[in-house]
Amino acid sequence: MAFSGWPEEALDFYDELAVDNTKSYWTEHKAVYEDKILRPMTELTEELAAEFGEPKIFRPYRDVRFSADKTPYKTHIGATVGHTGYLQLSAEGLGAGAGMWQMGPDHLARYREAVAGDGPGTKLEEIIATIEQADVTVHGHGALKSAPRGYPVDHPRIDLLRFKGLTAWRQWPVEGWLETSAAKDRVISFFRTTLPLCSWLTDHVGR
Q1: For the chain, how many structural domains are there in total?
Q2: Which domain covers residue 187, as residue numbers?
């Protein structure tokens, strides 16, 4: 079937799960999750795959082994699209992300070298400015308190150099279009808008 949005029952499911995050609730309402939440996410990500890359939908169960929060189920459904895209549905609405959340040591070294260079570093600043003009927020993650080793504190792109991850994010609140195929159009627009950022990261940092 073609993606046609998420019905109101999907949001109700997560509202209720937040109140009763138990195996008994999950078991009783599992069919709602599979038909009203998982199936539309599967349809959407499969339709996006040809342009943006293969999808992977995350399991609904939380890993509570090392968490103080022992609730067993996630109150959202998330999926990656390609190696730089992300989608998330919750009771708060639909979110989309793009970029690299957390870079490993090798990726981070290449990222900082590129940011420090006048050519690629200036280009990244231009890309971020253009994306933010489209009402998409660009976030840095895991920022150091000071300059990374080997870089001057007065570098013109010191804020970018301090980050250990860089992503774009757009959150849409619950509105009527979420129940229609228009949700796909918004996601496509987001991924196309953020493609220059993802391309820069792929070219200069790697996969």
Answers
A1: 1
A2: 8-204
Task: Write the pLDDT tens digit of every residue in 150-190.
Answer: 999 999 999 999 999 999 999 999 999 999 999 999 999 99
Q: Sheet harboring 165-172: ordered strands across?
A: 55-57, 76-81, 85-90, 93-100, 165-172, 137-141
| 19 in a structural domain | yes
Could you report the per-residue pLDDT of 85-99, keeping only the tens digit for each? 999 999 999 999 999
We report the CATH number of the domain holding residue 185 as 3.30.930
CA 138 – CA 97 distance, rounded (Å): 9
Is residue 72 included in any domain, yes or no?
yes
pLDDT digits (tens, 9 = 90+) for 129-144: 999 999 999 999 999 9
Kindly give the pairing relationship between strand 93-100 and strand 76-81: unpaired
pTM: 0.93
Alpha-carbon distance 196 to 198, whole Å? 5
